[in-house]
Write a structure and sequence with these properties.
The protein has about 350 residues and is an alpha+beta fold. Helix content is about 20%, strand content about 35%. It has helices spanning about 10-15, 35-45, 65-70, 120-130, 155-160, 205-215, 225-235, 270-280, 335-340, and strands at about 5, 20-25, 25-30, 45-50, 55-60, 85-90, 95-105, 110-115, 135-140, 145-150, 175-180, 180-185, 195-200, 225, 285-290, 300-305, 310-320, 325-330, 340-345, 350-355. It has a 6-stranded mixed β-sheet, with helices on both faces. Strands 15-18-17-16-19-20 form a 6-stranded antiparallel beta barrel. The chain has a 5-stranded antiparallel β-sheet with strand order 6-7-8-5-9, covered by helices on one side. Helix 2 (about 35-45) crosses helix 7. The N and C termini lie far apart (about 45 Å).
Amino acid sequence: MNDVKEVALGKIHESLGAKMIPFAGYNMPVRYSSDLEEHNVVREAVGLFDVSHMGEFIVSGEGALPLLQYVTSNDVSKLEIGKIQYAYFPNDNGGIIDDLLVYKLGEERFLLVVNASNIKKDWAWINSKNDFGAVLENVSESYSLLALQGPKATDVLNKLSSKDLSDLVYYSFTHCDILGIKDVFISATGYTGSGGFEIMISNDKAATLWAGLMEAGDEFGIKPVGLGARDTLRLEKGYCLYGNDIDDTTSPIEAGLGWVTKFSKSFNADSIIKKVKEAGAAKKLIAFKMVDRGIPRSHYKIVDEFNSEIGEVTSGTMSPSLKEGIGMGYVNVDFLKSGAPLFIQVRKKLLKVEVVKLPFV
């Protein structure tokens, strides 16, 4: 039985020659030309992604704010209408159910954008915690989400938009008309670190929007971009990928998410997470570059010079921008304090790495 869902633009991606793969329950384009070409066009000009596999929930009513204050780590009461907040859902053991974006649509109305692989899990979780009478709607199947990313993204979108989007600041959103389509939802967000927008639109208008963006972007060298380049782009900026760098067993303190963990309010498992913060995490998510030639991969062991395991790679690649191996992984904190050299075990070889600060690019 085939449970893989199709996104609204699936046939368009196939017509463009995309390699389609099952990803997070959806048939998604992983690449159209090459990961390297698609990566570089986003860094240097502009690329268009279909990220319609992401999940969207509407939370509204008098109970909306109390519910979100309880189930998310960040302080939603500080959010203004038109602004966006990064947060995570803590589970009952102080791990991470998912990371997400919270958009304040109105005084008692919020949009949550969650990871595709976690839609069912997140939906069940937020419903199980809704003792506040909030109204919950899962609108994931009704909308497409396109990401226009890169330094030329504003130039492209301004050709089509009814309002100038040059001043839309990072982590803000607005509505405007595009290509005769009324009230299109546009946010200054993305997963590439190259600037740009994410545009949410009803499925029946998605093909019109895709075609219009590709045509408007033609003079700037726009290309469609798949999930392959999306992964190298996010890793160069040090953005965590759920399932790789964070999961249900990860402490947010280990993962460096203390900045979106607000103990000024009460939230699920706050006492557990606070204890980890006060005692100090046993391991820490680090970023590293290869000193010796090689490409780090997920699940490679991080070892000391005596080949004793002290951690594990969670994400790794050959950086298209830097042309060197980069990665992230968890390492024993006591070992990090020692300042001793770190290595990655690749088959029978030990390859030296150096710890660096994020972002890589």
